[in-house]
C-alpha cells in the first residue's frame, strides 16, 4: 500500500564515480541499437497537484503504462492545497500505449484506496507557445466507478514525442560540428532563443559533450563567457542563460545516478520501516503522554538522519 519508489535499491554503492559512469559504456552498446533506424516514443509528465479532495488526508499518484506500474509520487497531506510538482521521464511502446494516472488516498502505511484515474492522451499540443515545446497542461477530472458531481481533479502537464532516430553514422558530421563549435553555437543561438529553447539546447549539448568526453571544457568555456558578460556578480548563475541551464542539466545527469547509488538502499529501508518518526505535535495521533512520544519519535528520526549522512560521507570515496 505504501507508494513504491522509482529508485532501484542497491546493496552497495557502485565503485565507479558518478561523474564517470555515463561514459564508461560508450561504444559498448550490446544490442547495436545505434546501427539501425528506430523510433523512440518518449513521455515526460509532471504530476502537479490535486483539488476537490478532503483535507488532512495523504494522497499520492501512480503512473501506469499499459497496465504496468511505472512510477509513484510521494504521499502528500492535503492542507490548503496538495502539491507534488514531480516529473517523470517514461519510454512507451507507441502512441497507442495507454497511460493513466491513479489518484490514491493513504490512510496509513498499510492501507490505501484508489479514488479514481485519469487517462493521458499521447498527442502534441497544437496552438500557442506550448505547441512549440509540445507541452499540454490542464486540469483532468478523475473517473471512478461511482462518478460524483464534484469529482477531484488532477493538474497534469505532459509532453509526448515520437522521434525517428537514424543510424549513428548519419550523425558523424553533426557530431564533428558540435565537437568543434559547441560554444560558438550557443553564442549564436542564445540571443534568439526562448527560455524553454535554451533549456532544450543546453540539455542536448550536455548529453553530446558528455558522451564525447569533453563536457569539462564545454562547461568551463560557457561559464567563463557568462561571467565576462554579466555586469553584476549578484546575477551570476541566477539567470536563464544557456550556461546556467547547462550546469543544471549536468547536475541532473550525474546527480541522479549519484543519489541512486548513495541513498537508494537507506531510503528504501526508511520507506519500509514501521516505526513512527513524526515529530510535529499537531500530526501525532497517539496523544497519551505526548512529551514522551515526541522524544521517542525524535530519537528514531535522529537515527535515520545519522544513517543517511553516513552514506553521504562514505560516497566521497567514489570521487
From TrEMBL:
<dbReference type="InterPro" id="IPR039360">
    <property type="entry name" value="Ras_GTPase"/>
</dbReference>
<keyword id="KW-0343">GTPase activation</keyword>
<feature type="domain" description="C2">
    <location>
        <begin position="23"/>
        <end position="140"/>
    </location>
</feature>
<dbReference type="Pfam" id="PF00616">
    <property type="entry name" value="RasGAP"/>
</dbReference>
<dbReference type="InterPro" id="IPR000008">
    <property type="entry name" value="C2_dom"/>
</dbReference>
<feature type="region of interest" description="Disordered">
    <location>
        <begin position="1"/>
        <end position="36"/>
    </location>
</feature>
<dbReference type="GO" id="GO:0005096">
    <property type="term" value="F:GTPase activator activity"/>
</dbReference>
<dbReference type="Pfam" id="PF00168">
    <property type="entry name" value="C2"/>
</dbReference>
<dbReference type="InterPro" id="IPR008936">
    <property type="entry name" value="Rho_GTPase_activation_prot"/>
</dbReference>
<feature type="compositionally biased region" description="Polar residues">
    <location>
        <begin position="1"/>
        <end position="14"/>
    </location>
</feature>
<dbReference type="InterPro" id="IPR035892">
    <property type="entry name" value="C2_domain_sf"/>
</dbReference>
<dbReference type="InterPro" id="IPR001936">
    <property type="entry name" value="RasGAP_dom"/>
</dbReference>
<feature type="domain" description="Ras-GAP">
    <location>
        <begin position="197"/>
        <end position="319"/>
    </location>
</feature>
<protein>
    <submittedName>
        <fullName>Uncharacterized protein</fullName>
    </submittedName>
</protein>
Amino acid at each position: 500500500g505504501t507508494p513504491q519508489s522509482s529508485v532501484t535499491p542497491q546493496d552497495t554503492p557502485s565503485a565507479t564515480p558518478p561523474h564517470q559512469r555515463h561514459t564508461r559504456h560508450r561504444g559498448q552498446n550490446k544490442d547495436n541499437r545505434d546501427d539501425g533506424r528506430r523510433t523512440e516514443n518518449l513521455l515526460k509528465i509532471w504530476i502537479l497537484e490535486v483539488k476537490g479532495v478532503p483535507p488532512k488526508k495523504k494522497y499520492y499518484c501512480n503512473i501506469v503504462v499499459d497496465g504496468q506500474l511505472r512510477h509513484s509520487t510521494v504521499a502528500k497531506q492535503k492542507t490548503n492545497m496538495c502539491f507534488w510538482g514531480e516529473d517523470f521521464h517514461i519510454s512507451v511502446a507507441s502512441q497507442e500505449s495507454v497511460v493513466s494516472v491513479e489518484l490514491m488516498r493513504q490512510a496509513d502505511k498499510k492501507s490505501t484506496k484508489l479514488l479514481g484515474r485519469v487517462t493521458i492522451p499521447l498527442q502534441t499540443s497544437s496552438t500557442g507557445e506550448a505547441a512549440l515545446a509540445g507541452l499540454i497542461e490542464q486540469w483532468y477530472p478523475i473517473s471512478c466507478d461511482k462518478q460524483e458531481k464534484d469529482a477531484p481533479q488532477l493538474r497534469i502537464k505532459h509532453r509526448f514525442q515520437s522521434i525517428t532516430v537514424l543510424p549513428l553514422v548519419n550523425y558523424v558530421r553533426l557530431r564533428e560540428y558540435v565537437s568543434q563549435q559547441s560554444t560558438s553555437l550557443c553564442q549564436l543561438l542564445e540571443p534568439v532563443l526562448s527560455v524553454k529553447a535554451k533549456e532544450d539546447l543546453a540539455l542536448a549539448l550536455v548529453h553530446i559533450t558528455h558522451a564525447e568526453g569533453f563536457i569539462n571544457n564545454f562547461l568551463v568555456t560557457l561559464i567563463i563567457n557568462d561571467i565576462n558578460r554579466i555586469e553584476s556578480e549578484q546575477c551570476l548563475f541566477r539567470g536563464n542563460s544557456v550556461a546556467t541551464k547547462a550546469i543544471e542539466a549536468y547536475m541532473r545527469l550525474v546527480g541522479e545516478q549519484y543519489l541512486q547509488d548513495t541513498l537508494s538502499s537507506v531510503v528504501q529501508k526508511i520507506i519500509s520501516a514501521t516505526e513512527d518518526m513524526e515529530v510535529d505535535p499537531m500530526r501525532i495521533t497517539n496523544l497519551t503522554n505526548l512529551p514522551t512520544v515526541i522524544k521517542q519519535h525524535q530519537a528514531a528520526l535522529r537515527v535515520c538522519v545519522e544513517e543517511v549522512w553516513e552514506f553521504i560521507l562514505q560516497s566521497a570515496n567514489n570521487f
